[in-house]
Description:
Layout: H1 8-18, H2 48-51, E1 58-90, E2 96-99, E3 101-104, E4 107-110, E5 112-121, E6 125-126, E7 134-140, E8 143-148, E9 154-159, E10 162-173, E11 176-185, H3 198-203, E12 207-220, H4 231-235, E13 239-240, E14 243-246, E15 255-259, H5 284-292, H6 296-305, H7 307-317, H8 321-327, H9 353-357, E16 366-368, E17 371-373, E18 378-381, E19 398-406, E20 412-418, H10 424-430, E21 434-436, E22 441-443
Antiparallel strand pairs: 1-2, 1-5, 1-6, 1-9, 1-11, 1-12, 1-13, 3-4, 7-10, 8-9, 10-11, 12-15, 14-15, 16-17, 18-19, 18-22, 19-20, 20-21
Amino acid sequence: MTAADISPRVRAVADAVLYEGYLLYPYRGSSRKNQSRWQFGVLGPPGAAAAGVGEEPALSAQLLTEGGEDEGVTLVLRFLQLQTRHVQEPVEGGGWRTVDELAAGAQRWLSWDEAVEREVAFAPVRLPELVAPRTIPVAVDGGVDVEELAGPGRIMRTRQPLAAEVTLSRTEDDGFARLGVEVRNTGPEITGPGTTDKEDAIARSLIGAHVIATVAGGSFVSLLEPPAEAAAAVARCTHRRCFPVLAGEPGTRDTVLVSPIILYDYPEVAQESDGALFDSTEIDEILTLRVMTMTDEEKAQARATDPLAARIVDRCDAMTPEALGQLHGILRDPRADPGLIPELPEGVPWWDPEADTSVRPDVDAVLVNGVRVAKGSAVRLRPSRRADAQDLFFAGRTATVASVHSDVDGNTHVGVTVDDDPAAELHDWYGRYLYFAPDELEPLGEPAPGREEGQSWRQ
């Protein structure tokens, strides 16, 4: 696999990881939250953590694979290289002087720390041949670029060289192969306090570092929800400063994203999102509305801070009412699938008997993350904070859907029975269900364990 082979779905998530926290609302350099940046996936130069000026130099993960003699793994290492932007004005008599800001009419430029995306794709490694750890060096050149401005001065961008290494190892474990992946910053060591500062340490760090691993001739095992036969081997896998998850289309097992932030298997960027806002724990609609409320002066400050911030402001300013409405959520036509909860005929109030006959909870369905969920569907319960306290006891448990209901306010409720409840069949017999909202369910896409068709408590 080359960097170009990364699927758009995986790349979208990896980009969100790469830029998580890069620049936060209100996207101005003067904002206190943007004075301390680069929060995730920072691999500092050796000695930086001990000297108190930077982060530890390495991250490591162990991935579990199953395959045969042809099993091979390809890695792509991705990170940001810091680029310091010096805004400079000419000095009388010759030379240049760095200043905080330059302005020419409505155009402004600030001295600021930018970042450059780096991707390093490694040649495939056949796992059966990995009898001893293999270390691959990584080198990224530094540099200086100068951009002449039309009138007030120039911009000088500088980058420090980076050095790192990726080490692969393989261990047999219960019939599986445990693949070790370590990424380590190997730049010049910081020997102690006072020998450098935080600005120099971060300039020599790998920022937002993460790895995309793809296996051919085999498959990865989910480390979050492993099959029973792999549970013991998964429990012996260790990770440091990262969280490996399956990535790509749900159900595929050929790609793992080794992420510096906590994710779930098969993460995805919401289809309503029209562009990066660099804060994936926030809601695009809220951030967009906040940008729209900024004054012209505040927007000018944001645009002067960073080209990526300028794109955010410009995109929000140009957003149409239709695009903004989409951020509130997509209303999909329920009539596109006759098995979903039907809409009431126009003009029929909820109390009319016709409203009752238009729905059938025993056969109606609801889409959850694009998966059709109806009676008999296997789900995992993920109660939200708004749930009753009693519902939280069922977090992570598997359940079987018994019915799908719509209330008079148009909200959907899914009735379930918990699979390991000894009285589950009894509850199903007389219709005593637990109810959850669709967004509190994780479709499993397969029959619930231990609930064969026709099984009954009366047998």
